[in-house]
Amino acid sequence: LLQQQKLPLPNYEIIQVTGKSHAQTFTIRCIVQGFEQFGTGIGNTRRKAEQLAAYEMLSLFQSNKAHSG
Fold this sequence. Notes:
The protein has one helix and three strands; from the N terminus they run E-E-E-H. The protein has one helix at 46-68; strands at 11-18, 25-31, 38-43. 17% of the residues are buried.
């Protein structure tokens, strides 16, 4: 969707990692350059947390686009 809109790809930032090495919980932030809001995801793997952050970011992006016309 971002490429279609000629926007840069998102960046992912690890906010927090908690728990022991065999049972960690990751908190990840999804950031899109030029967009004020960001998505946050929490998961038991880094990949899952990134996916959840991306889904939240997509929802915010689509909601913002709908409000701006």
